[in-house]
Specification:
- Two copies of one chain form a homodimer.
- In chain A, a hairpin with a 6-residue loop joins strand 11 and strand 12.
- Chain A is α+β, with helices and mostly antiparallel strands.
- A nine-stranded antiparallel beta sheet of chain A has the order 1-9-10-11-12-19-16-15-14.
- In chain A, helix 5 packs antiparallel against helix 6, helix 9 packs across helix 11 and helix 17 packs antiparallel against helix 18.
- Chains A and B meet through strand 21, helix 14 and helix 15 of A and strand 21, helix 14 and helix 15 of B.
C-alpha cells in the first residue's frame, strides 16, 4: 500500500511517551483532558457500525484543534488529482471518502456565555470507549467564567442494528448555582474535507426543513467531470428534552439549529436525547431520501434510546462471542487486541458487497474508505474466521463486481483480451492512485486478490463459489500475468520486469521474487480450477468461456509460464533474492542504522532509500507467509533471518507478517517483539499520526500474529491445524473461530492447550501434527509445547 | 533532460504537413496568414539578443489564440511546486522564466472601429524574419468592415548592441479612403504566465508615470516564501509620430496608453517609431530603475531608429562571420541550419556569467530560461568554436559560481564533505525539478559539467582556468561520485545503483553504463588535474585544498574506484550493456513498432515504456560520442548498430548525437537521415509543439551533426583534426571556427576539402590522418574522401 507517511516510528517498543489511556480489559479510558492530544483522542474514540461512523468530535463547541469527521460507507467524492508530472495512464480523479454533514453537535450557552470546551475550566474529565458495548461516553465537570459549575454526561453510539441511525444521550446538571441554559442541537451541512486537493467544498445544499419538530437536510455532492455519479444524503435529527423548554429554530450558514432555553436550579439537570438518521442515494432514490430519513428518525424515537441501545449491545455481544481474544496476565496486550478487533468490527460488517475496508475506516479522511490490497492480504483471514461465510464472500464479490473495471484498467495500460489489473486504490473499481511506480508497477496486488479466493474456498469448502464467480476473476488475473511476463531472450525464462514489490523501498525492479512467485501461483491455481470446474460443471464453464472468449490456447501458454517462471535465488547465501541484483547492494543491516536516522523515510531522500538494502515491509517474507507449505523449514528460517535483519518495518503492515513467520520457525521472542509493534500501534501512537485516523487494516495483523502466529493455525483443503505456544508474559490466551459448520474455542495455557468445539464437528483437527476428531461439546486437551 | 512532452513525433522525415514557410537561404518568410498557426509563428519569428526577447506577438490587437511572451534573461519567479506525492529532498519551488510587461503593443482604431487582426479581412500578408540582420518585419493589407483598406508595414528588433533596448517602426497607409485613425501605443504591466502552477499572477505594480512624453512602469515580482529575491523591472517607451497627432494618455487595468488621433487622406501614411527599454534589479538598484529606463529610452530616441538598426546589423554581421554554415545545393538545409544558429545566437551571447541557455530561450515559457545539462552536453561545443573564449568561459563560470549551491544540493540528498551534485533544472543553482527518478537519480548531469571543463581546456589551451576555477568544480563533482558508488559485496567492483541515464525511458536502474563510465572518467580526469595543478601551481593548490578541506586520502579512494569501476558489458553480443539486465528485455527493435503506436510516449503507459527495450535518446551512444577515442571503431559500430535499432529518438537531443556517431563509423546515409530530424525540427514543426516555444538547446545538434559529424572535426590536447565527407544531396558546405588564435574556414565539396586559415597559425592540423601546418592566409586543399 502506498501510504508514504504510514510508518511505525518507534525504535523500541517501550516508549517514553506520556501515558494517555488507562489500562483496562474492555474499555479505553481517558481521565484527563489534554488539548494537545484531542485529535488523537478523536481518532481513538471513533465509533462506527460498518455503514457510518464518526470521529469522537465533542458534541460541545470546541475552538481548539480538531478534525471534524463523519463518514458514510461508500459515499465519496472524485477529487481532481494533483500531479506534478503527468504520465499516460494516470487516473483523472482520486476518490475521497467524504466528510458528511455532522449530526452530533450540541452547543450550550450558560447565562448567555458559550460553553467552549477549549476555553472553560475543566475540573474533571473522563472519556470511555466501551468496546464490549460499542458506546462512547464522556463525563466532565466544567466551570464557566461566572463560576457556574456544570456536570455534563453524554453517551452516544451508532446502531449495529439500525445501521442508518445514531443516538446521543446528553445530560447537563448544574452543581452550584441556578442558571439559564440555551441548548442548541443541530445538523451542520457545511462541512469540508481537509485533504481536498484544491481546497474545494465537495457538497452543495439541496434543501432543509423543520418537519414537525424533526429537522432534515438534504445535501448533494458537487458535479464532477469524471462521470462519477453524484451522491445525495439526507440527515434528520429529532431532539427530546427531559424538561420543559422553549424551542426556536434558526438556520445559519447551513447549520440547522433547534434552540431550547430553560432555567435550571442548583442541582437540577436536563437530558437531551438526540436521534439521528442518515440515508443516501447509495441505497435509495434521491426523491425519497428526505422522507426515508424522517421515517428512520421517527422509528428510532419511537423505539427509544434504551431499546435502541439494548439491541445494539446485543449485536456487539454476538460479535464478541465469535471474535474475542482473551489474554490473561497482560492487561495492555488484552486491551490492545480488543481495540484492534473492535475497530475491525466497526469498520466492516460484511452485509453489503459494495463496501470494503478502508485503511482508516471511519476514523479519518486520509486513505479513508478506499480499498487497497490490505483487504485481501491482511484483513481477509480475520473476517473469514470470525464472521459468517457471507461476510468474506461479500469481500470477494466486491472484487468480482469490479472485474469489468479491472479489465478496463488493464486496457488503459495496454493489456488486451480481458486481462484484469485490479487497481491499487479504488472506490468503484477505477484506479485512483497516481504514482507510476505504484499505480502501474505494484501489480502484485492482483495476486492477493486471487489468493483470497483460494483462502475462502479452502477455509469454507464453498467450491461452488469458484464455478459461479471465482474462476472468472482468476482467469482475468491470469490473463494479465500471461501478458505481463516476457520471455528473456538470454535466460529463456519468463520474467516480470519493472515492478514494485510489497517492499515499496524498491521501485521499478526486475523480477521481484514475490511478484513472480505469485504470478506463477495464480496461473497454476487458475489452471487447476479450470480443470476442476470443467469436471464438475462443464456447462457453466462453457457458458463462461464463451462469454469471456476464453480459449484453450491460453491454457497452453499458461502451463509453459508456470513451468518456466524465473525465480531469482542466490546459491552462495542459499536465499531467495528479493529481486535481480539485490545482493549488489551495500552489505549493511538494520543494526548498522544509527537511531537518529530512523525512520529512514523521514531522514533520507528517496533515491538513498531505494539504493539501500533496507526493506520497508515484508516482501520475500510476505511470500513465505503466503506459500509457507511450499518451503522447507530451513529455507524459511534462512530467509527470515536474512530479510528480518534488513527490514525496517516502516509500514504498519509489516511486523505482523514477520511475527507470524517468526512463530513458524520457533523464534518466539522475535515473534512477540514484532507482535507488540502492531497490537498497540495506535493506542500508544507509536508513529505519531493517530490524529489523522487509525490504521484499521493493519489491526488485523495483531489477530494474525496471535491466531496464525502464536497458535499456529493453518487451514489446508481437508484439515485445520494448530501449533500453539504462549508468549512468556502471558498466562493464557484464547480465541474462538468459526470453521465450516463448527465453532472452536482455542485456549492456550502454559501447560495445556484446550480446544473446545461448541458447535459442529471437526473430523480432522491437527494439533502439533497429531490428528483428532472432535465432536460438538467436546474439548480436546493436549500438553503445550515449549 | 526531463521534458516529457519533448518528443519528435515525426515517423518519417518527409512529412505531409502544410508548408508554412517559403524556402529561402537567409529569411523565414510566411506569405499567408493562418490563425491556426499563429502560435507556431509567434515562436518561430521570436527575436532576442541574449538579454531579452519576445515571441512574435502582433503589435496589433489580436483576439485569436496567442501566447503573449516577453522575457528578460535571468529574471524569474519561484513558483510554488505542484507535487502529487511529496518525497524527502524535493525542492520547494520551481523557477519559472517570467512573462514580463509587454512593450510591443500598438492598437489602432479606424473610424472608431478596432483593428483586430483576428477579425478584419486580411487581403495580403507577409512576415519575414531576416536572420542575417536580426529583424522581424511584417507587411499586411487589411480591409475594415467599412471597406477602408490599410497597408501596415512594421519592423522590429531588440538591439544586439544596446541590449536593454528594442524598437519598432510601424507605418499605416490608407489605400482607398480618408479616415480617422486612433493609435494607442502602450506598455501592458498586467501579464501572466500561462504555466503558473496555481494560476497566480507573478507581478505586482509598483508605479507608472508619464515623464515628459515618455511612459515608464515599474513592476516587481510578488513576494515568495522561498527566500528568493524579488526582481523589479522598469519598462519605458517613447513614441515618435511622423505626422501631427493629438495626444492623450490613459491608464486602464495597468495598461499605460499613449493615444494619438489623426486624420489620414486616401494615400497618406503615418509612421510611429516606438523605442522601448527594460532594465531590472538583476543589474541595477531598485530605486534607480525608473531613471535608468528613461535614460535608455532617451538615448535610443536620440540615436534614432536607423542608427540603432545599423549598429544592430553590424553586430549580427560579426556573429555570422564567425558562425555561419553555408550549404550549397540544398536551400531547405541551408535555411534550417541558419535558423538554428540564429536562434542560438539570439538566446545566449555569453557576456554575463549569470545567464545560461534555456531550452526554449526567449520563445516560450515552458522550461524557458532554466538551465539543464543541455548546455554542457549539447550547446557548449557550438559556442566554443564560434565565439570568443570568454563566452564558453562564462558558461563554465556559471557553474563555478553555483558550486556552493550544488554542494548544498548534495547535502540535501545525504552527501557530505563538499560533494557537489549539480541540479537537473536550475536558475540560481537551487534544484527546481521534482520527479524523484530525474531530480535524485539522473545524476549523470554531473559528468557533462565536468566534461565541459575538459572540452574548454582542450579546445582553448587555457589550462590556467583549471587552477583558478576548474579543479574546485572537478573535486566537488568527484567527491560526489566517490560517495555515490558502493562496493558490491558480490562482484567486488564499484557500482552505481538506482540511477536514470540519459535514456529517460529507464528509471532507477543499476549500473547505467554511461553514468558509471562518466563517473570513472570524472575521477580520473580530476586525479590528473590535481597532479598537474600541484606541479604548476602548488601554492594555489594548497590554498584551495585547505579552503575546501581536501585530503590526500580522498585521492587514494578515487584511484581505487577508477581501477575497479563496474562497467556492464555482454560477451555474447559483444556490446556494452546500457544497464544491468538490459538484455533480459524483449527481443524487439524499433522496426517491430507499429506506426500507430509512435511516439510510444503518447500511446503507452509509463510502465510499458520502462520495461520495453526502447530507448528515448542516445545513452550508450552518447557515451561513445563523448569518449570515442577510448574505443575501437568496431566496438563503436557494433554498439551503434545495436542501440540505433532500439532508439525511438523521442527526445530532440537524440538524433544529432546518433548522427555524429553514424558519421564516425562511415554510415553517411544514416547520419544524414538523423541530421534532418534535428535541423528543421521546429521550422517544420515535426513534434507539433512549436507553438509553446522552440527547442533551442537541441538546435546545437544540427551544428554538431555537420561540424563534428559530416566534417569530422575533433580536438585533442595538441591538434585539431577533420575527416570530412559530404551528404549526397549537397554541392558544398562550409563553416568557420575559431581555434585558439586562429580562424579556420572549412569548405567541403564533392571533390575537395579546402581549409583556409584567415587569421593565426595552425601548427597541427590533421585532415584524414595527415598532419599539416597552415599559416595565416593559406588554404590547405585535399581530396574529399567518399
Amino acid at each position: 500500500m502506498s501510504k508514504i507517511t504510514d510508518f511505525c516510528l518507534y525504535l523500541c517498543v517501550e516508549q517514553k511517551t506520556k501515558k494517555m489511556f488507562v489500562e483496562d480489559e474492555w474499555n479505553i479510558i481517558e481521565r484527563e483532558f489534554d488539548a494537545d492530544r484531542q485529535m488523537i483522542a478523536e481518532s481513538i474514540f471513533s465509533i462506527g457500525n460498518g455503514h457510518m461512523g464518526q470521529r469522537a468530535n465533542f458534541e460541545e463547541a470546541y475552538s481548539g484543534k480538531t478534525l471534524q469527521g463523519n463518514y458514510i460507507g461508500g459515499v465519496f467524492f472524485p477529487d481532481k488529482t494533483r500531479v506534478g508530472w503527468w504520465k499516460n495512464g494516470y487516473p483523472d480523479y482520486f476518490a475521497k471518502v467524504i466528510n458528511a454533514p455532522n449530526w452530533t453537535g450540541i452547543h450550550t450557552w450558560v447565562n448567555g456565555k458559550l460553553l467552549d470546551l477549549a476555553k472553560v475550566k475543566i475540573r474533571s474529565f473522563e472519556r470511555v470507549l466501551n468496546m464490549k458495548e460499542g458506546t462512547l461516553s464522556k463525563q466532565c465537570e466544567v466551570e464557566m467564567p461566572d463560576k457556574t459549575r456544570l456536570l455534563i454526561t453524554s453517551q452516544r453510539f451508532v446502531s449495529m442494528v439500525s445501521v442508518e441511525v445514531g443516538a446521543i444521550r446528553y445530560t447537563i446538571e448544574t452543581l452550584n448555582k441556578n442558571c439559564e441554559l440555551t441548548i442548541q442541537s443541530f445538523i451542520q451541512s457545511k462541512v469540508f474535507n481537509q485533504d481536498s486537493n484544491y481546497n474545494e467544498c465537495f457538497w452543495e445544499s439541496v434543501s432543509h426543513k423543520n418537519a414537525k419538530g424533526r429537522i432534515v437536510a438534504v445535501d448533494k455532492t458537487k458535479q464532477n467531470p469524471f462521470g462519477v455519479s453524484q451522491y445525495s444524503l439526507a440527515t434528520a435529527i429529532k431532539n427530546d428534552f427531559s424538561a420543559q423548554v422553549s424551542i426556536t429554530h434558526k438556520t445559519e450558514n447551513l447549520q440547522l439549529n433547534e434552540i431550547a432555553t430553560l432555567q435550571l436550579k442548583k442541582g437540577d439537570s436536563v437530558t437531551l436525547t438526540k436521534y439521528a438518521a442518515q440515508v443516501s442515494t447509495l441505497n435509495y432514490e434521491e426523491k425519497s431520501l428526505e422522507k426515508i430519513a424522517l421515517q428512520r428518525v421517527e422509528a428510532a424515537e419511537k423505539e427509544g434510546y434504551e431499546h435502541l441501545l439494548k439491541s445494539h449491545k446485543k449485536a456487539w455481544a454476538e460479535k464478541w462471542k465469535m471474535s474475542d481474544i482473551v489474554i490473561k496476565g497482560d492487561v495492555k496486550a488484552q486491551q490492545g487486541i480488543r481495540f484492534n478487533i473492535f475497530q475491525l468490527q466497526q469498520t466492516y460488517t460484511g452485509d453489503d458487497s459494495r463496501l470494503n475496508i478502508g485503511p482508516k475506516g471511519f476514523t479519518g479522511e486520509k486513505y479513508g474508505g478506499v480499498t487497497y490490497w490490505d483487504t485481501e492480504a491482511f484483513c481477509f483471514p480475520f473476517y473469514l474466521s470470525t464472521s459468517p461465510e457471507t461476510v468474506s464472500r461479500n469481500l470477494l464479490l466486491y472484487r468480482y463486481k469490479q472485474l469489468p473495471r479491472a479489465i478496463k484498467n488493464g486496457e488503459k495500460l495496454g493489456f488486451t483480451h480481458g486481462a484484469a489489473l485490479y487497481p491499487m486504490v479504488t472506490m468503484t473499481g477505477d484506479e485512483c492512485h497516481n504514482e507510476w511506480e505504484i499505480t502501474f508497477e505494484e501489480i502484485h496486488r492482483n495476486g492477493a486478490i486471487a489468493h483470497a479466493i483460494y483462502d475462502y474456498v479452502t477455509y469454507t469448502g464453498d467450491k461452488a463459489y469458484l464455478v459461479e464467480y471465482g474462476l472468472e476473476v482468476l482467469i482475468g488475473i491470469s490473463r494479465f500475468w500471461a501478458q505481463r511476463v516476457i520471455l528473456s531472450p538470454i535466460k529463456r525464462k519468463y520474467m516480470i520486469l519493472g515492478v514494485t514489490g510489497p517492499n515499496e523501498y524498491e521501485n521499478n525492479v526486475n523480477n521481484n521474487w514475490y511478484t513472480n512467485y505469485f504470478a506463477q501461483w495464480c496461473l497454476r491455481y487458475t489452471l487447476e480450477t479450470i480443470s476442476w470446474v470443467k469436471r464438475v460443471a462443464m456447462e457453466q464453464y462453457q457458458e463462461m468461456a464463451k462469454r469471456i472468449s476464453f480459449e484453450e490456447m491460453e491454457v497452453l501458454r499458461w502451463s509453459d509460464i508456470v513451468q518456466n517462471m524465473y525465480l531469482p535465488t542466490d546459491e552462495k547465501y542459499g536465499i531467495i533474492l528479493q529481486q535481480d541484483g539485490y545482493l549488489d547492494k551495500e552489505a549493511v543491516t538494520v543494526a548498522d542504522l544509527p537511531a537518529d536516522q530512523r525512520p529512514i523515510n523521514q531522514h533520507w531522500s528517496w533515491d538513498r532509500i531505494l539504493r539501500s538494502p533496507y526493506i520497508k515491509q515484508a516482501d520475500v517474507v510476505q511470500g513465505l507467509y503466503f506459500f509457507e507449505s511450499d518451503f522447507e523449514m530451513d529455507t524459511i528460517r534462512r530467509n527470515f533471518d536474512f530479510y528480518e535483519a534488513r527490514c525496517v518495518h516502516e509500514s504498519s503492515l509489516s511486523p505482523c507478517i514477520h511475527s507470524v513467520v517468526a512463530s513458524k520457525i520457533g523464534n518466539g521472542e522475535k515473534a512477540y517483539e514484532l507482535y507488540l509493534r502492531t497490537a498497540r500501534l495506535d493506542l500508544d501512537d507509536y508513529n505519531k499520526e493517530a490524529q489523522d485516523g487509525l490504521h484499521i487494516t493493519s489491526m488485523s495483523g495483531s489477530w494474525l500474529a496471535i491466531v496464525k502466529g502464536f497458535a499456529g493455525m493453518r487451514v489446508q483443503p481437508n484439515h485445520i491445524s494448530f501449533e500453539p505456544y504462549i508468549p512468556k508474559s502471558w498466562k493464557t490466551y484464547s480465541f474462538t473461530i468459526l470453521y465450516r459448520n463448527a465453532v472452536l474455542t482455542v485456549k492456550v495455557g502454559k501447560s495445556s492447550v484446550e480446544i473446545r468445539v461448541s458447535k459442529g464437528f471437526v473430523p480432522n483437527l491437527k494439533v502439533y501434527g497429531e490428528t483428532y476428531e472432535v465432536k460438538s461439546g467436546e474439548t480436546l486437551k493436549v500438553k503445550t509445547k515449549a
